[in-house]
Design a protein that fits this description.
The chain is 74% helix and 2% strand. With 835 residues, it is an all-alpha fold.
Length: 835
Amino acid sequence: MERGGSLSPPVGCPPLTAPPAAFSQHTANMAESETLETVTEHERILQEIESTDTACVGPTLRSVYDDQPNAHKRFMEKLDARIRNHDREIEKMCNFHHQGFVDAITELLKVRADAEKLMGQVTDTNRRLQDAGREVTAQTEEVIRCRIQQRNMATTVEKLQLCIPVLEMYSKLKEQLESKRYYAALKTMEQLENIYIPRVSQYRFCQIMAETLPKLREEIKEISMSDLKDFLESIRKHSDKIGETAMRQAQQHRTFISAVQKQASLGCAKPLYSLNGRTTLQHNGLVGEDAADEEEGDDEVLTAQDLVDFSPVYRCLHIYTVLGDRETFENYYRKQRKKQARLVLQPQSNMHETVEGYRKYFNQIVGFFVVEDHILHATQGLVTRAFTDELWNMALSKIIAVLRTHSSYCNDPDLVLELKNLIVIFADTLQGYGFSVNRLFDLLFEIRDQYNETLLKKWALVFREIFEEDNYSPIPVETEEEYKSVISRFPFHDAEIEKQPFPKKLPMSQSVPQIYIQVKEFIYASLKFSESLHRSSTEIDDMLRKSTNLLLTRTLSGCLQNLIKKPHIGLTELVQIIINTTHLEQACKYLEDFITNITNVSPETVHTSRLYGLSTFKDARHAAEGEIYTKLNQKIDEFIQLADYEWNMGESDGRASGYLMDLINFLRSTFQVFTHLPGKVAQTACMSACKHLATSLMQMLLDTELKQISMGAIQQFNLDVIQCELFASSEPVPGFQGDTLQLAFIDLRQLLDLFMVWDWSTYLADYGQPTSKYLRVNPSTALALLEKVNRGMKDTSKKNNIFSQFRKNDRDKQKLIETVVKQLRSLVNGMSQHS
């Protein structure tokens, strides 16, 4: 249904019937209402179009079409009506103003001629003015141009005055970089960034500078780090030289102090303090030669800084500090130095072969820690005392382990002594730099024991060589000079020998003074190790005495024991060895005095050790005495083995056996040699020989392999025993009381007397009585020999076929033998039951 139109039925629908009257009225009212509303809306739209900008008319016109259907037709009608209305008003206005317009046109035509005239005048005036002002204009433009140039120049000067310091600083920066003054370059960069570049930051070159500076910083860091690496490599190579110099200076200082102390102890010197801090000695107005030599040879004291350029470290430290990366640098430096420390502490595999190997090892370590000490004191915080102490403790443990291992391979005492001296200088050097070295001195005590062991081995060879070269005969002295030469080497004093005219002989052999001298040499050698150990005289005295005791009780004693046991050492040599040990024993007190004089420690001191030489030489002498007894008995056995008795002989030869006479002659000559022995030793040897001879003869009679013995053999054997008794009664060795020596043969004598006299009745009657004539005859011994004699008698009778005569003449003797045998058996059985 279109707005404002009539109602019509829809297409295809039948027409509606006419509405009732009431409905028609209502419909008319509605149509009128809608028409009024439409007219009002169109008025509003027209007013809006008239008062609105043309660009905004579109929405207004769209509302016309968006309204009721066919409304635009009504709007167009309304618009046409409005246009016609405006046209009428325009026409009225034009008609009203037409006459005024015509008058104005007339006036304008009149003015045109005057205007043209005025235009010509103005043009002419302008031409003349332009001609007149052209020169002024040119001058004005020149002035303007100059003023602009002046302003530009002033501005340029002003800007250049701001830029020139920046450029100068940048040029300075380049020069510093070229001259490798990196720390100053960093300071210059800092000034550029904080002061100069901000003033002219609007310029492009400043921006380029600002972008370049971080790159330059990185280059400086890289260059400084490269210099640091070169420095670390350099000090690794120069550590040996640095350590050598430091240890040499420490040794010179120690030598000088020792000289001062020595002169002071003599009370003949007073110290003079020179301007350079070193002390010289003056004695009677003269400077000590040692000190003067040292002054001449050490005019300039070199330090680590003299040998190594530390500027790369300082420079790198300052650079990293300025760059705010100090911690990184410190960590890197410490890490690298720890690695170098481990490399330095690795020894050469053959270091123990020469002292140079040890010296190079110590030089490198000292050089390393001298550098660290210098860095510690020359820089603030790059390394700390805690860090150096940690490094030193790690190094000290490694050093001690290395020295323990390598020193154990040393068999040369001279090399061990040189090692000790190196360790002392090494310890003194590092102690001078503030490092704790107590553990090194503790190690020296371990090495001292090893040094003593090497000395003992060396002196064992010396003693062995002395013993091998000795002739084991008294020392002959032809003149007073020879005598003084001997007693100057060995403390020997004997009033009787001194009274004897020359030539004469000293009781000891040549080995005695040589041994005494070598013991003193050993003490000197042992003392060398004790020097510079910072120990008291009492401790040094104790160490000397202990090492000397080891030499006497172990080395010398062992050599003596081996010497005594050697098969080629005879009785004469053993006798001389006993004499030698006696004199060496007497010389022990002089050795103690010798040690006391060296150490100045009184022997009465509570903790002073005593030398065990007395027991050593006593033991050796006892061993030699025992060996004498053994060899003497062995010699007797050799003679006994030469015995060739005819046990079935009818009668004796009437003289002693040849082997026995040879034996007795041997014993006589041997005991003559014993005159130089102590009386008790000679007496013991003589008694031992006689007892052994008696025992050997008794065993010969009672030998189980010997089945029968004739009375003729008994008689021959008796003659031999008589010679033995005569030898014993001749006092081959003085000092025996009465028949003491003859008692060694008492058992044989009583046994042989019993058989020679055939005194069985007395033996059996007095058996067991203290006053018995045959007290020393054992029933078993008598029974064994009687049975052999009995068998010998029977065998002789059978060979001679005189049974009838035997039965007739010796029946009583045979019965007696049988009776005695029975009684002896009963005694033997009784003894066995009793036992």
